[in-house]
Design brief:
- It is a single chain.
- The protein contains 21 helices and 13 strands.
- The strands form three sheets. Strands 5-4-3-2-1-8-7-6 form an eight-stranded antiparallel sheet, with helices on one face. A three-stranded antiparallel sheet has the order 10-9-13. Strands 11-12 form a two-stranded antiparallel sheet.
- Helix 20 (about 625-635) packs antiparallel against helix 21 (about 650-675).
- The model is unreliable at about 230-250 and about 525-530 (pLDDT under 50).
- Helix content is about 55%, strand content about 10%.
- The longest helix has about 40 residues, at about 575-615.
- By secondary structure, the protein is an alpha+beta fold.
Length: about 675
């Protein structure tokens, strides 16, 4: 039995390492390379098959069939793997190209490049692009087709668009591309009736088994939840913050009263109808790095550049943070004038450096950023940065315009991260003092109530900011890093508010984690602009998938900081109170491990269903998919307490949980910034 256990552990670790290595190889050599040499090879399938077979043998020997939820849980993964094997060997993927009026009954299979026969013919009747109101940004691509079988005179008419697929005789057709003349369309073809059915059965069984695992009185989760170490409470305190102002300056532009009216003009910007206030804020923030310039509002700056560029080009307006780049350009201060980017004979100084933009070092990044800033100014002065909305196009309501202006005025993430981090550090030190000293009980109670009040206010403010962004954008804010980090902060705060009365030490952790999460979203690494969704992202499944994943990440983040806290406490177990706190923190981590792993699994498989609905593949070994699977596998390990001795030891368990969070960081940030892939927009 030990040999089987060690073999399972070896295969498990080997697959994790192999998948991580494959994502790196994909970044170096491309998707086709890793598909041919790793993911789509028989030996890779054999490794998964061996792991599955040995796990089944181990489950039978351990008689886990007597524990129905656990037996179902592991059985679900076996069924999912069987479904993927069926898809791998029997599923077919390809493309079919249609032109208006021409019938087609063959498609090109993807890996073999062979033409395969369809049991019916498709004829394209029309293709059209639907646009967001008042813009040239596509909101959907729609192919209208007719289908006819050779043995049947009946003709079926159907529309195929993003997230609206055509199912016919076991085949599924997805909108993929179109011809420049809009007289032709390219559809993805998928034929996998058995593999998809088996895999979906596994998903349903997995969801049911997770619910049973959480509610069964005989299982570990309920026993941990009933642990006496989780029945305790108490803590914390408050703070305030000043705001910044700037001087007025005698620079040609419109007056403040006129600027307020200009702010409400509606234009098409970033493929979306917005008030001009949004364009002005983005322009000033991206180039100057602040929301005002020498006492002038964003609208006054924007109007000044449009009306008098010859004056404004001498203003030291363009922020260049990278000192070595400033030195190369002969610029002495942090802010450069537009005219300083051109030589005396009118040549653009960055032109000789253009080849360096592709480098992934600090200089390459600085050159890209400065080139983008100069480009934005040139776009503004050449009237291509935004377009006035046509009178006949749909306009935003006055309420939407006012809401967006209010949203632009309030730097929600900046306020929140400053308050939350300041309160987090303060309350953490106060909590440490509470462990060491027993005096000033009344002051501590007042501080606790005040801290909870600040935390509640911070949560409410974040929720309102998120809701306002939802209203302004006209969609669920889940499409980019800024929005998902904001949601993660809200979820962290919601979890903390729900549990802080029972676990007082969670409050400083909730402040700190949400503060750091909001700080990341505030920094320039993520784009806060509200833009229309790519057509493929128009799906309620996407919102659920991202929300569930972010809830899992929020729990895992809280567990990591609790694990680090427990390890810090373990350095000195001098008091009974400290030992009890270590047990409480560790037990809470063990409890939170179950819902976090289950939410992560559900989020991953919901993403698979969304991918299957959107483009016909529920798993494509994209780097983010692969790292999400690695993260799930890593966090699933300590759930096996009875089989793994280290998972039963408090210190080893907390070390593992703390270090495991590196996988989450790699999945959420590392893939986006180092590996790319289809999820690079997330």
């Amino acid at each position: 039995m030990k040999i089987i256990k060690y073999a399972i552990a070896t295969l498990f670790v080997a697959l994790i390492v192999l998948m991580a290595f494959a994502t790196y190889m994909e970044q170096q050599h491309g998707t086709v390379f890793v598909a041919q040499h790793i993911y789509h090879t028989l030996w890779f399938c054999a490794l998964w098959g061996m792991l599955t077979l040995l796990s089944v043998i181990y489950i039978i020997n351990r008689k886990l069939n007597r524990r129905l939820p656990i037996f179902m849980l592991h059985g679900a993964f076996v069924i999912i793997l069987i479904g993927s094997v069926i898809t791998f060997f029997s599923g077919k993927e390809g493309k079919i190209h249609l032109r208006v009026g021409a019938a087609e009954n063959t498609y090109l299979e993807q890996p073999t490049k062979q033409m395969l026969q369809l049991p019916f013919s498709l004829t394209l009747k029309s293709f059209q692009i639907e646009y967001y109101p008042g813009t040239d940004a596509p909101s959907d691509f729609v192919s209208t087709v007719s289908c006819q079988s050779p043995n049947d005179s009946k003709i079926v008419n159907a529309e195929i668009s993003m997230n609206n697929i055509l199912r016919l005789h076991g085949y599924r057709f997805y909108q993929e591309g179109f011809d420049p003349d809009h007289k032709g369309t390219t559809l993805s073809v998928n034929h996998d009736p058995w593999g998809t059915a088996v895999t979906y059965t596994g998903y349903l069984l997995l969801a049911l088994s997770m619910i049973l695992t959480l509610i069964s009185r005989k299982e570990t989760f309920r026993r941990l939840l009933a642990s006496p170490t989780l029945r305790r409470g108490a803590l914390l305190f408050v703070l305030a913050m000043p705001m910044l102002t700037a001087h007025a300056a005698d620079i040609p532009t419109i007056n403040a009263e006129k600027a307020k009216k200009v702010a409400r003009y509606q234009v098409v910007y970033n493929d979306r109808v917005t008030p001009l206030n949004t364009v002005a804020i983005d322009f000033l923030q991206k180039i100057y790095g602040r929301h005002s310039y020498k006492g002038l509002s964003a609208e006054q700056v924007l109007y000044g550049w449009i009306a008098r560029p010859e004056v404004w080009k001498s203003q030291h307006f363009i922020q260049i943070k990278h000192a070595p780049l400033r030195k190369r350009l002969g610029i002495t201060s942090e802010y450069a004038a537009m005219e300083e980017l051109f030589s005396a004979d009118g040549k653009y100084k960055l032109m000789p450096m253009v080849h360096e933009e592709q480098k992934h070092d600090a200089m390459g990044k600085a050159i890209r950023e400065l080139d983008e800033k100069a480009g934005l100014i040139l776009m503004l002065t050449s009237n291509t940065l935004f377009t006035p909305i046509a009178p006949s196009s749909p306009h935003l309501s006055d309420a939407r315009v006012e809401a967006e202006i209010v949203y632009n005025k309030i730097p929600a993430t900046k306020i929140l991260f400053i308050v939350n981090l300041a309160m987090g550090f303060f309350s953490f030190f106060l909590f440490m003092a509470n462990i060491s000293f027993e005096r000033w009980q009344r002051a501590r109670r007042i501080a606790q109530v005040a801290s909870v009040g600040v935390f509640g206010a911070s949560f409410t403010f974040a929720l309102l900011a998120y809701a306002l962004r939802w209203y302004v954008g006209g969609r669920v804010p889940l499409s980019n890093g800024y929005e998902t980090m904001l949601l993660m902060a809200i979820l962290l705060m919601a979890i903390t508010l729900t549990m802080h009365r029972r676990f007082p030490y969670l409050l400083p952790f909730g402040f700190l984690l949400s503060g750091f999460t909001l700080l990341v979203s505030h920094l320039g690494s993520m784009n806060p602009q509200i833009t229309p969704l790519m057509p493929v992202l128009h799906s309620p499944l996407l919102s659920i998938h991202v929300s569930v994943i972010m809830a899992a990440y929020a729990l895992l983040a809280l567990m990591a900081i609790q694990g680090a806290f427990a390890l810090w406490l373990m350095r000195n177990k001098s008091s009974e109170q400290r030992c009890a706190l270590i047990d409480q923190v560790t037990t809470l981590n063990r409890v939170m491990l179950y819902p976090s792993v289950f939410l992560l699994a559900i989020g991953i498989f919901l993403g698979a269903v969304w991918a299957n609905v959107s483009w016909g593949r529920y798993w494509s070994w994209d780097p983010k998919e692969t790292w999400a699977l690695i993260t799930l596998m890593v966090y699933a390990v300590p759930l096996h307490r009875q089989s793994l001795a280290f998972a039963r030891h408090n210190k080893h368990f907390n070390i593992y949980i703390t270090c495991a969070f590196l996988c989450v960081i790699m999945t959420f940030f590392g893939v986006n910034y180092f590996l790319g892939g289809m999820h690079a927009y997330a």
